[in-house]
Amino acid sequence: xxxxLSKEDIGITVSKxxxxxxxxxxxxxxxxxxxxxxVKGLIVLRPDGYSIWESLRSTFDEKFSKNGIRNGFLPILIxxxxxxKEKKHFAGFNPEVFWVTHSGENEVGDRLALRPTxxxxxxxxxxxxxxxxxDLPLKINxxxxxxxxxxxxxxxxxxxxxxLWQEGHTVHAVQEEAEKEVMKILxxxxxxxxxxxxxxxITGKKSEKEKFVGAVYTTTMESIMPDGKALQMGTSxxxxxNFSIPFEVKxxxxxxxxxxxxxxxxxxxxxxxxxxxxVHGDDKGLVLPPKVAPIQVVIVPIYKSDDAKNxxxxxxxxxxxxxETTKIRVHVDDRNELTPGYKFNDWELKGVPLRIExxxxxxxxxxxxxxxxxxxxKINLGFNxxxxxxxxxxxxxxxxxxxxxxxxxxxxxxxGDYSEFKSKIGKVDFLTHIGVEKLDVRKRSxxxxxxxxx
Length: 454
Fold this sequence. Notes:
single chain, alpha+beta, five-stranded mixed sheet, 25% strand, Rossmann fold, 3 domains, elongated, seven-stranded mixed sheet
């Protein structure tokens, strides 16, 4: 029995410019980054999607380690009585909390929350572990999931009821050291997102209204998306002593006088993957920056007979081995049942940064054809120039950031006060917040975003 797939089954059927939301969903699903789970609001991460997350995790771990931060693990269940210790913080999350009320058929008594965030649990443990100034600073990062009962429309990677993230929690003896930690982490986030995902970001402080519940202040990393909306990409919070006092996170100083500690918390989630999709993707599908691409180079052999295949594959395998010795992630598409044209479209949909095309005629000319995914440029490369592919991938990475910065600049206006805002924008369609001491303005329109941060 034969069957065929239509364009609706395998290709992107809407334009990014025409229906951004539908385009995004199709890219996530058809590029096989994730799929919807049987439970509403949850998604299943597929291998390519998880590989991108692992790449980011590896980079963050390396940078965290250099900053004296180690990884730990926290359980997912938090007793309601424990959450009540910091009522203001908990009240902010209460509408979003999933509750466990039974263990088997028996009621658990004190309800258990499925972790929306881990401050209360972490600081209960920190109060046991910290006794003296010698125990500080304490810097631990946790790679885990958080669960929040989203009542708004969900979107893969951007807003789901369960999501992968990292949350760091540090404790310090003095306020100044804690505040420096807040900014160090924000800079790590900024550099990683720009260097790895090729996404330009703006960093600054959240308004008092938008800060993290329980924080003294919140610093944020945000970027403008192609639909003209700002996306929060990560946050780093100065908690002051707002948690150390109710949770008794305290220490004996060098004079043996008991002091309450100063704390920070910070995190990014797989929302970074969603931002990458939106910023770089096109009507063909996903466009991956080389640094995080699960496959950096795909080799597509071109042949019409077994004799041609026998000519192509020895050279193809030689090129593959040469690239792998330089740590380039390579895949050979040897699916016999598919045409080269189908394969080209398939790998463009999946966003692989570089495609190598090689057939008998190319071997005669002692060359390969390189196709760049991000701008679809094709170049011929001699067999004696294969080592240049690593440099070409680096150039692609830099060019993608450069192009993203240019697009962000087109949709951004820098303003200093509300009067200037009114003169630049005119009629405001959508205004989320105007602070008194700072301006944090977002104007939602088809192609324009105005935003400033101190």
